[in-house]
Structure formats: structure tokens, C-alpha cells
Amino acid sequence: MRLILIFTTLLAFQSTASGDFDETKRLALQGNIYMQNNLANMYLEAGNKKEAVYWYTKAADQGVVSAQGMLAYLYKEGIGVPENDALAVKWYREAAVQGDANHQYNLGLMYASGEGVPENNIRAYVWWSMAKTQGNISAANNIDILKPKMTTQQIADGQALATKCYESNYKDCD
Questions:
Q1: What is the mean pLDDT of residues 132-145?
Q2: Within-domain flag for 57
Q3: Number of independent structural domains in the chain
């Protein structure tokens, strides 16, 4: 009897999950950008990486920050797509200029390591400064590690560019 109850509960849960997926897909196909992102999450969780990338791209192209960040991560790691650090930088930048501290931090990492972009401590400093102003502790720690590797002039240039970036609402950061 207990086994039948467990089996019935599992079938009911599966039916609900299937219904959620169908409703999410219906809304995504109608152009709901947040449902496109949710559908991408569902596909990724189910292991369908190619379909996940498709839906993340649709949402990311329309400005969904979480989709942009996820797409950057997928390109960085080569999940569902060929590894491509330049595209990872592109998508991290799209999310960073919308003010997302985590992706500002990640963009700083890309500049600091020269992945997808030429290594540039000043740019790393700028993006970590943006993330630091929003309370990202890792960015603050990385700035402390980076400063001894920079000249006084590079630090001054980084601070000036960070100020310009912040005051322009991330429109003038390069």
C-alpha cells in the first residue's frame, strides 16, 4: 500500500513538472523573455545543453542579465557550445554594463587573466571597482592583490576610469 502511495505521488509530481514545462515553453514561444530564460534553465537542468544555449541566447539578446551571465559562463566553460573566451567576455560585459556586480567581477577576472581579451590590469581594476562599490568582497580582495602589480600611474588611471565609468552609469568604461 505504501509503495502505491509513493508511486502515485511521483506520478502527480511528474505531471505537475511537465505542466510547468509546457506552460513555460508556451510563454517563451510567445516572446516572454523571462520565461525564455526559465526554459533555458529547465533545458540545462535536464541536460539538453544545445536547447539551453538557444533559449539563453534569445533572452540574453533582449537584455536579461541572468541569461547573459549564464551564456558567458557556458562559453567560458565550453558547455553546450565550443569554448570561446571572447564570447564569454562579450556576454559578461553585457551583464556588467547593466550594473550586475557578479558579472562585473567576472569581467575583471577575464581582463586580469587575459582570457578573451588582452590582459589589462587597469580594466580589471575598473570592473572590480564597480563590483566593489556594490559590496562584492572578492572584487575588493582582488583589487588589493592587483595594486602591488600596478604602477602609481596605472592605479591613478584605473581610478579615473572607474569614476568615469560609474558616473556614466557604465556607458563609458573603456
A1: 97
A2: yes
A3: 2
Q: How many CB atoms lie within 10 A of CB 19?
A: 10
Residue 170 phi/psi, 5-degree rounding, is: 70, 15
Give residue 174's pLDDT.
81
Q: CA–CA distance from 142 to each of 25, 45, 62, 114, 136 (Å)? A: 41, 32, 31, 15, 10
Q: How far is CA 117 from the centre of its chain?
A: 17
Q: Which amino acid is at 63?
A: G
For 29-78, the DSSP string reads: HTT-HHHHHHHHHHHHHTT-HHHHHHHHHHHHHTT-HHHHHHHHHHHHHT
Of 150, 149, 108, 111, nearest to 127 by C-alpha is: 108
- Residues with Cβ within 8 Å of residue 89, at least 6 apart in sequence: 72, 107, 110, 115, 116, 117
DSSP state, 93?
Answer: H
* Residues 6 or more apart in contact with residue 156 via CB below 8 angstroms: none
Residue 72 forms part of a structural domain: no
- Is the per-residue pLDDT at 103 higher than 80? yes
Q: Do the domain assignments include residue 146?
A: yes
